[in-house]
Write a structure and sequence with these properties.
The complex is a heterotrimer of chains A (156), B (277) and C (106). By secondary structure, chain B is mostly helical. Helix content of chain B is 40%, strand content 10%. In chain B, helix 6 packs across helix 7. In chain C, the strands form three sheets. In chain C, strands 2-10-9-6-7 form a five-stranded mixed beta sheet, with no helix packed on it. A three-stranded antiparallel beta sheet of chain C has the order 1-3-8, with no helix packed on it. Classes of the chains: A alpha+beta (156), B mainly alpha (277), C mainly beta (106). At the A-C interface, strand 6 and strand 7 of A face strand 6, strand 7 and strand 8 of C.
Chain lengths: 156, 277, 106
């Protein structure tokens, strides 16, 4: 009960420990941080190790219209019992048309109680946002939503 | 070009009672999204706070004192309140006690100052305390310190109606502020009133225009600025948008304008720190 | 200097899942250039957020430039015992900010 279930690991270590498919990708990208990518599909593949995530289980709540892209509220929840045997390990937010598509990731433990987080993100333009959940059984789920970002006017 | 379209639009508006403007102003749904309860709070005598021109997502950030980032400045204000400074080695607390003692002060500023024979606003009043009572340096306009203290002083009057006096010795300054509000300026040749009296509730490009009754809201956390800012910063922004040369924050012109804008907000509640897009 | 605000309930029942809210004043500066001088402004964002209970991390945030300035983060925790929370924010400038809060299990 006292074991620490999560630790901060760097991207390289993560890639190395995430299986052969990723190892191949690591070679391709020479270990560069996937975070820097502008390609959401590539980032998604790096996260899942090439596996296609299943749609569902992930609920992504964002306003349909964001008055300003600088501060857009987001709530993510993943349907998971959050027990020691079956829990959501992490959720990653991807803004598909941001200059840097990786926004943030949250790592959970069964002690989190729920795989739920509420934060605020920057959005450069109208786009689709993805939330990718990794479960303790190694499966991946994805939730998507589109946010319209209003630009122009008398911003002042 | 803009001017021409604008004027044409004005004619169309008066003639048809509908908006047929070349995409400059379009009809919006001002305040339609707010809950009934909020409407009562933020609409007084037909005057609507900018809160009612915000989307539910933005309103929600303001509604919860914890999600509202403006409170980071309120807390910083509390720290500064107790900090002894200047040659007199005094803090705000030494004279005033708890900040809550100043409840009721914020809604009455700007007011006529017999000493300088012109208006003084709340930021200037805070700085006067610093230079005269504390013998400390005045804080710079838009500095984190001045914003924090102004926000704290505003916050302790939250919920009270804005209540500025525009008669007596303040009258000539009120008239100057009013004249500013109606004076066309900049390359776009627009006055404050063209947006905020003539077209609130309608869109100017992507932005929904409010009634500009900002008296109870500033200093506020603006999503665009990603920080808290003063009413004079907003004035400067508006002036720049019509491509006019903005005045300095804290200038007589803007303090007079502030009195007029606050008078337009008389009766609306102090919301400091409000949250807007 | 307290730059952070945290909201944790003072009391909870054993096994209860509580909501924790956190807010910190930070520019979340992206790497850019000064508009006037053209001088580069280095990236300075909070890249890691950690929530611990009695010394044990239960939530970690790995943030990038897409997180808004003055980051707000709310999350949950299942409380099984009384104890102390510690919240840690780390930025690119090497600064670490911490906030603590206690909870009592009745």
């Amino acid at each position: 009960m006292n074991e620490v279930r999560i630790k901060v690991i760097d991207r390289r270590e993560f890639l190395v420990t995430s299986g052969a498919a990723i190892a191949a990708l690591t070679a391709l990208t020479s270990g560069a941080l996937a975070r820097e990518t502008k390609d959401p599909t590539k980032l998604l593949q790096e996260i899942t190790g090439g596996a296609a995530p299943t749609e569902g289980k992930v609920k992504l709540e964002m306003p349909e219209i964001a008055e300003n892209g600088a501060t857009v509220p987001v709530k993510v929840s993943v349907d998971s019992p959050m027990t020691d045997k079956d829990y959501c390990e992490s959720v990653t937010l991807i803004a598909t048309k941001n200059p840097s598509v990786y926004v943030c990731a949250f790592k959970f433990t069964p002690d989190s109680g729920k795989a739920w987080v509420s934060t605020r993100i920057r959005m450069a333009q109208t786009q689709e946002v993805w939330a990718v959940a990794k479960m303790s059984d190694g499966k991946f789920y994805i939730g998507k939503t589109t946010v319209k970002v209003t630009i122009g006017g008398c911003g002042g | 070009m803009f001017r021409k379209r604008y004027r044409m639009g004005g004619i169309a508006l008066s003639a048809l009672g509908t908006l047929v403007m070349a995409g400059v102003f379009t009809l919006g749904a001002g305040g339609a999204s707010a809950c009934e309860e909020c409407k009562g709070k933020y609409e007084v005598d037909g005057k609507k706070s900018g809160y009612l021109y915000s989307t539910p997502a933005t309103q929600a950030i303001q509604d919860d004192d914890f999600t509202n980032p403006g409170f980071l400045w309120v807390e910083r204000g509390r720290q500064l309140w107790a900090k002894k400074e200047g040659e007199a080695n005094k803090s705000c607390k030494d004279c005033h006690g708890e900040p809550e003692k100043l409840r009721g002060v914020f809604p009455t500023y700007p007011k006529f100052d017999p000493k300088t024979k012109k208006l003084i606003n709340i930021e200037q009043r805070i700085n006067r305390c610093r230079t005269e009572q504390m013998k400390a340096k005045a804080w710079k306009w838009e500095s984190d310190e001045l914003l924090s203290m102004t926000t704290l002083v505003g916050y302790v009057s939250r919920g009270m109606p804005v209540n500025v006096k525009v008669d007596g010795p303040a009258k000539p300054f009120f008239e100057k502020g009013k004249a500013f509000y109606f004076q066309r300026r900049g390359q776009l040749d627009m006055a404050c009133k063209h947006c905020h009296i003539d077209f609130p509730g309608q869109y100017i490009r992507a932005d929904l225009l409010s009634e500009g009754r900002a008296g109870g809201a500033f200093p506020l956390y603006r999503l665009k600025w990603q920080k808290l800012g003063s009413l004079h910063r907003r004035f400067r922004g508006c002036n720049k948008q019509v491509r006019a040369k903005p005045y300095k924050a804290g200038s007589d012109e803007y303090v007079n304008l502030e009195l007029y804008v606050k008078w337009r907000s008389n009766g609306l509640p102090v919301e400091v720190p409000a949250v807007r897009r | 200097m307290a730059k952070a605000r945290v909201k944790v309930p003072k009391k909870a029942k054993k096994g209860e899942i509580i909501t924790i809210k956190t807010l910190i004043k930070h520019k979340m500066q992206r790497a850019t250039k000064d508009k006037k001088t053209g001088k580069p402004i280095p990236r300075n964002i909070i890249h890691t957020f950690e929530a611990k209970f009695n010394g044990k991390p239960f939530l970690i945030g790995e943030w990038d430039t897409g997180v808004s300035a003055n980051p707000y983060c709310a999350f949950t925790h299942r409380v099984n015992e009384s104890g102390e929370y510690e919240f840690v924010w780390k930025d690119d400038a090497g600064q670490t900010y911490t906030a603590k809060a206690k909870i009592e299990v009745a």
